[in-house]
Amino acid sequence: MQKVIPTLKISSEEKSQAFYIDALGFRVDWEHRFEPGYPVFMQISKGDYLLYLTGHEGDCQPGGLVHFLVDDVDHFYQTLPQEKLEVNPPYEMIEGIRMLRISDPDGNELRFMNTKK
Q1: Strand order in 65-69's β-sheet?
Q2: 63: CATH
């Protein structure tokens, strides 16, 4: 299995936690700050999915893109709290691949997708 942890740039810890934790159901595994009041670097997870979120300048640029392979993207979509997210239903962009596109508060794009069986 591939082991990679994408890092996404965030500008507001509060908005990012509301999006990733409250709306998408990730959890915070750990947080690091060099000193109180400094930007956060954190690991969040949901099942086997891991992401790093960073407020540090120079770690990466906003506007990243991460693809998540899920068993059933339509079921995943149905489990999302629609009142907390502005998200369109999954669609077939490429023949045989269903995809759900969600943008976080900083313009990073998350694509949840599965292939037809």
Answers
A1: 65-69, 109-115, 97-103, 91-94
A2: 3.10.180.10
